[in-house]
Amino acid sequence: MIVGIASVNRDPRRFAEPDVLDISRQVGHLAFGHGIHRCLGVPLARLVAEIGIGTLVLRLSLELSGELEWHPFPVFRGLKALSVSATPRR
Ligand code: HEM
What we know:
24% of the residues lie in helices and 17% in strands. The protein contains two helices and four strands. Strand 2 and strand 3 form a beta hairpin.
């Protein structure tokens, strides 16, 4: 049996709009796993994401500039690359 962790976070029985990116979602997710093996790096991952993504969107205007190409792995789904064009914000 293969568990697709990413699909758990898009479960229509749990989330009203499972395919919508809603960063204010209050219901828990499993992106960092669960239980005794829950990710040990959660605080660091959150800090890096907040600073990194926050700085990017504050300084740059970003737009998708290519087709999305996905890795074929069923368990950890992800993009091979994300092409964006960036222009500095004034
Ligand atoms: C966005 C970033 C990250 C995501 C999405 C993520 C996700 C996960 C997930 C899903 C697991 C559980 C795997 C399982 O159940 O077998 C896990 C475990 C773990 N993560 Fe992360 N992780 C992230 C960043 C980090 C960072 C920055 C560190 C350390 C600096 C870290 C250290 C660990 C360790 C040590 C475990 C194993 C915990 C255990 O088995 O007891 N992770 N992570």
